[in-house]
Amino acid sequence: MTADPTRTTCDPVRGGVSAQAGPLLVALDIDGTVVDTRGRLSDRVRRAVRDVARSGVHVVLATGRDVNGARPVLDRLGLDSGWIVCSNGAVVARFDPLLPNRYEIVEAVTFDTAPVLALLRAHLPDALYAVEEVGRGLRLSAPFPTGELDGDTRVVPFDELAIPSSRVVVRSPDRSLEDFVALVERVGLRGVTLTVGWSTWLDVAPEGVTKATGLETVRRALDVDPSATLAVGDWSNDLEMFAWAGRSVAMGQGLPEVLAAADQITGSVTDDGLADVLEALPPSTGG
Asked: Which of 158, 180, 206 lies at the terminal end of a domain, its last residue?
């Protein structure tokens, strides 16, 4: 079974960010990198992010969250203009306080979720399902545990999940990581990008879409040299971002395969590992 992605784009409004601004682009995963598993943001990390942004560096959050789920993190960091890559690369947005909703979606890649949902439900009838409505929030088959999803959510009948979307989330706590991998191979999901978030979680995205594809859209818009890119993350959905970046840094608590793929390993999120990285950037980097 295949799913054909649909890409919609708009020309970003120039203003808050100049296409010829500073030479460095820093891509930051959110969960496990900027904030810990409880959503806590340390003062030191907040200060480090603000300092590099004020120096002229393009700080771009790259996350599996949808836009509305990521916006509170932007606010907590004090980032009021710039770019963000959401939904594991399927949605690229530019945010600016002068825009009507404080942001605009520059690019969104969606796919037909109906066949994917039908196939997965046949094998995982008791799982929880979520489908992203780009720019609006998430439709859920039933409530997810508190704190697992960010942004606006609403429960709908299962057949109302089948909409063009940038992401399908499947939560099945009775399945192990190995179970998920075996299921994906067995049911023959094709034409989509799959990411196992942890032992209970599977993300289904349009084919070929990753954080790296969204970040490449931003890099080109900002005219940043490919070698002048730095990525920091901790999970499997950061691997493509690491391969894309000129330099990659893994958080200390990251998955073994993420640590192995990184150019450098920093401290864990609870030890402010991100601040260690950002504070070490030379002053001239921001141009």
From this structure: 206
